[in-house]
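User: Hi! I have a protein structure encoded as tokens and I'd like to know what sequence might fold into it. I'm fairly new to this, so please keep things simple.
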């Protein structure tokens, strides 16, 4: 089964079984099936949507073979994908009160164990 994208037929193997969108970052889960990495967060109760058996979603393995086929397919068919951009976040540090003084605290390098108060060697 294939899905049509305008006049282009996209092979079903290139589509994520969760989102039914073309996989941009295909990964294999412990159930042996390939999903798009951005879609695995929608797997509920850690059950595979295909086999309904427990699946480990914390350790996805990149599926480089399918990724290569999809990338080649996208280039050959001149498909333009709309990728959500991250919001622009300023990279400046938040301003602090200039009158605040910071203390530099030296960390001890060796702790000498005694029965009384511990002595720190600097």
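Assistant: Happy to help. Inverse folding works backwards from shape to sequence: for each of the 122 positions I chose a residue that suits the local structure. Here it is:
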């Amino acid at each position: 089964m294939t899905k049509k994208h305008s006049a282009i037929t996209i092979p079903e193997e290139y589509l994520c079984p969760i989102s039914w969108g073309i996989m941009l970052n295909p990964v294999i889960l412990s159930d042996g099936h390939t999903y798009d990495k951005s879609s695995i967060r929608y797997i509920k109760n850690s059950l595979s949507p295909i086999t309904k058996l427990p699946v480990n979603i914390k350790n996805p393995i990149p599926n480089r073979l399918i990724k290569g086929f999809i990338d080649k397919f996208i280039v050959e068919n001149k498909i333009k994908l709309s990728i959500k951009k991250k919001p622009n976040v300023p990279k400046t540090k938040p301003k602090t009160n200039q009158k605040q003084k910071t203390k530099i605290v030296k960390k001890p390098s060796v702790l000498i164990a005694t029965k009384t108060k511990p002595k720190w060697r600097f």
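A useful reference point when you look it over: The longest helix spans residues 64-76. Feel free to ask if any position seems puzzling.
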